[in-house]
Each structure stands twice: as structure tokens, then as C-alpha cells.
């Protein structure tokens, strides 16, 4: 499924949207989540006050970036860009394409939640894969 979506970045909608920026923002958030997981795992080897402080900061950073991805998917992509086939502004030619788009965005969101819940880098890799699949809809061919 490769669809090109066009629309706005706010709920007005204003019609201003930068697809490559959306993808770059998601990629940057995932890279930050991956780094946070590595740092948390390394710092947990020695639990002193400084490491606990740094771990707390990394956990907060991981939470913030996973939350940003969830917000982008739900408030930005799903609310503004992924429209049902019955909508005249839909980019989808079939119900199957629409459902596939919903599933791709949902997969990103569930992977981001899993990253909030764990420090297993495999979950960040799963998020990266899900985001790469979803991103195909927003990048030029």
C-alpha cells in the first residue's frame, strides 16, 4: 500500500502540510527513544544518585517522544489525513486501502505505547519498522 496523502497540519484545516517533515519528526523521535533505552540500560548497572537522576531524565525523554509519536498519529494523521472512502477528500480508492492505512497508523501507535512500557530495544526496532511502513504513504515515490 503506497498512497500519497495531502492535507493540513492543524485541525482547521489550513492546508499547510510538510509530509517529509512529518516523517523526519517521527524518525527523530524513534532515534531518541532508542538512545534513551540504551542509556537507561547502561545507567541501571550502577545505581547511585547521579545515575538514578540521569535514568529518570531518560525515562521522561522516552515517554515524551513516544507520546509525540502517538499524538502525531492520532491527532494529526488519523484525524486530518486518513479519511474514509465515503469522504470526498479521501486519498483512498478502496475500503481495503483505507483499512490498511488505519492498521498501519494503529501499529505505530501500539508500538510507541510498548516503548513507553519497556526498555527493550527490540520494541524500538518494531516501532521503527512500523513507522517505516506507515511513512510510505507520506513520501514521494
From TrEMBL:
Query: Is the keyword Coiled coil in the record?
Result: yes
Pfam family name, one:
Sod_Ni
Gene Ontology molecular function terms on file: nickel cation binding; superoxide dismutase activity
Keyword flag Coiled coil: yes
Coiled coil spans: 26-53
Keyword list (alphabetical) reads: Coiled coil
Protein name in UniProt: Superoxide dismutase
State the organism named in the record.
Strombidinopsis acuminata
The taxonomic lineage of its organism, from the top, reads: Eukaryota, Sar, Alveolata, Ciliophora, Intramacronucleata
Amino acid at each position: 500500500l503506497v498512497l500519497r496523502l495531502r492535507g493540513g497540519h492543524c485541525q482547521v484545516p489550513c492546508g499547510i502540510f510538510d509530509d517529509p517533515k512529518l516523517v523526519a519528526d517521527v524518525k527523530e523521535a524513534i532515534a531518541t527513544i532508542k538512545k534513551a533505552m540504551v542509556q537507561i540500560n547502561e545507567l541501571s548497572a550502577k545505581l547511585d544518585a547521579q545515575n538514578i537522576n540521569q535514568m529518570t531524565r531518560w525515562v521522561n525523554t522516552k515517554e515524551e517522544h513516544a507520546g509525540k509519536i502517538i499524538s502525531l498519529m492520532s491527532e494529526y494523521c488519523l484525524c486530518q489525513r486518513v479519511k474514509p472512502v465515503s469522504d470526498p477528500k479521501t486519498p483512498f480508492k478502496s475500503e481495503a486501502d483505507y483499512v490498511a492505512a488505519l492498521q498501519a497508523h494503529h501499529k505505530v501507535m501500539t508500538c510507541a505505547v510498548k516503548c513507553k512500557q519497556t526498555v527493550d530495544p527490540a520494541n524500538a526496532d518494531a516501532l521503527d519498522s512500523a513507522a517505516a511502513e506507515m511513512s510510505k504513504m507520506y513520501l514521494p515515490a
